[in-house]
Write the structure tokens for this entry.
Amino acid sequence: MSQTLRVAMETSLVVRACRYLGRAWPQSCVGRLWAASEMFWKAAPGTSKIVSALARDSCEVRFWHNSLFGKALAAVASTSARVLSGAASAAVRGAEDSITFRTARRLLTFARSAWAHSRFAHLVTRASGVAEVGSPGREAALVGLYLAAASFLPTAVNTVGAFVLLLLWAVTQLAASKQVLITRTHIPVILLGVAACAATAGSVTIRGSLPALVLWASYLAVFFVVSQWVQEERDAWFVSAAWVMSATVVAAVGIKQYLSGIETAEAWVDVRMADYIPTRVYAIFGNPNMLAEYLTYGIILSFVMFLVLRAPLARAAMAAAFIVMMACLGVTFSRGGWVAIALALLIVSALKDRRLLVVLLVALVVSPLFLPESILVRAESLVTLGDSSAKYRLTIWTSVLRMIRDKWLTGIGLGPSTFARVYPEYEIAGTPAAHTHNLYFQVLLEMGVLGLAFFLWVVLLHMRDALGARHLGSYASYILAGVVAGTLGQLAHGVMDNIWYSPKNVMFFWAAIGMTVGISASGKRDGKRA
């Protein structure tokens, strides 16, 4: 009877779960902190006079260890560790033996096998350059598919997906016991997250800022997961290729809108230019400027991938993607988007092949000969500032600067609700606005001067990581050059508009930052090993 009872207890779910938790305890954050504190306490007597005094035989420490309460607490801690280890061990074994887990694993294996042997998959891998660079890891493939799908999914679904990715990372991290990548860029990112929390706590409408705080948490989750999972050259290439493909599909939707003559909101077109600009496309983003910002990364990544690839099919695919996205960018008639991509192309050319600067200069000189009159008229307004949108922004910026003057230290809080509540008090001449039309004003107004400082700190480290990774392989170095050029182009666009008004664009921005962190950190480790 006792033998049966013992076997039943050893095979029970509770005991198995306790065994698993016992194994997981040394690898957990709390367990590591506990072990670190023990190591510090053991090493401290030789280096600290205070701890040495406390550790003497006559000290109260000895009394504590010999006291009944101290012994009881030590026994509880030891028992808890064993219970947690056993529980964690049982949970893993139980999950692996479950019907659901085995069924999901078989379905995934079948799907991967079917995809690998299909002709379409072979064509896609060749056209995207994956066949030339190498297949990605499972985690990086998941990130690439998430970013590709995020372009078409609602914000709520993307937010949930970001947290699911973070949860999957935590589970795989616990199972594999891998080292967590923490770099200097993570410091200002964490501080920026703290600033977002503080801005929400001090918001003029906390209820209105809470949804924005959840979005910020999802952005930083994407940054963290991408920095952990996208560290190898082949991983970065797959993510970039998926990014380009989805952006090309979005651009094709925009071109279809232009050809079908989709109706344009009056607020998007100056009445004096209505004869030249029949419509402004927005694809699935609802706003031409947000679409133009989204296309910046896709265009510049397709450009650098075309430069570095050698396979004719892959180069042709990237050239086609570049042309489609550039055509769509043109018919958004977003001057900020045009400036952003022009700057990004100049930066990439300066970083990778300065002979391209001559090509770009020639293209700029001859462009008036073949560009439509509508684009030329729109581009001319960049210099003259004679259209209504320029005057509209200047009026808004005047109001916003007055708001910043009063709220520069703490900001007004996250989200459009706070802006809608405070802006009418400073509005000039009945000029309504949904945001500041300037990225830097928006960050400063929402999170105060510290929030803006942390954001600029992240940008500077991003540039340093990308530009300092020139020793990496050709594919990785070109991807990083494209990412940093796209980021700087978007930041230039941010002078003229709040490019973070679209949550999707903010998520892609932080994905780019995370990819740069992961690749550059991996390159530094490989360099040290060599």
Summary: The two ends are 62 Å apart (CA to CA). The first helix runs from residue 2 to 11.
